[in-house]
């Protein structure tokens, strides 16, 4: 007895195998794209964190300069009225009235003030 052949069976299994291969390839492509997106997101987060650390260091340096200036005596403050360059910073000291001093610290080359404060000293 010869086995009966069902027409189209061999062709159907070949189509199914081809579909499985396409599904696997599509899955690998999607997984690769997801991986690339994750790597890019992590790289962006790393660069943002580095920028935040640099800004924090800069801010702490400006605070150190402001703290030192607030400890100056009244004659020292009077001698330093106006704008002066202090390393990478521009410090401006104004005296709007007797005994009142206003301090502004900004980055050289920038017009925005990073720190501002006022100080009242007794008038001698």
Structural class by SSE content: alpha+beta
| Apparent shape | rod-shaped
In DSSP terms (H or I, runs of 4 or more residues), the helix count works out at: 2
Biggest sheet descriptor: 4 strands, antiparallel
Q: What do the pLDDT scores average to?
A: 88
Describe this structure in words.
- The chain is an alpha+beta fold.
- It has one domain (9-120).
- It is 55% helix and 24% strand.
- The protein has two helices and four strands, in the order ααββββ.
- The chain has helices spanning 9-70, 74-79; strands spanning 82-86, 89-97, 100-107, 113-120.
- It has a four-stranded antiparallel beta sheet, with helices on one face.
- Strand 1 (82-86) and strand 2 (89-97) form a beta hairpin.
- The relative contact order is 0.09.
- The model has no long low-confidence stretch (mean pLDDT 88).
């Amino acid at each position: 007895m010869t086995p009966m052949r069902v027409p189209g069976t061999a062709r159907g299994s070949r189509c199914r195998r081809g579909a499985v291969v396409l599904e696997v390839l599509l899955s690998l492509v999607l997984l690769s794209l997801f991986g690339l997106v994750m790597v890019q997101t992590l790289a962006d987060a790393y660069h943002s964190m580095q920028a935040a650390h640099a800004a924090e260091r800069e801010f702490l340096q400006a605070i150190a300069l402001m703290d030192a200036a607030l400890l100056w005596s009244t004659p020292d403050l009077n001698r330093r009225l106006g704008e002066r360059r202090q390393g990478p910073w521009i410090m401006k000291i104004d005296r709007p009235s007797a005994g009142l001093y206003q301090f502004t610290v900004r980055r050289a080359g920038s017009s925005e003030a990073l720190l501002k404060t006022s100080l009242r000293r007794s008038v001698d």
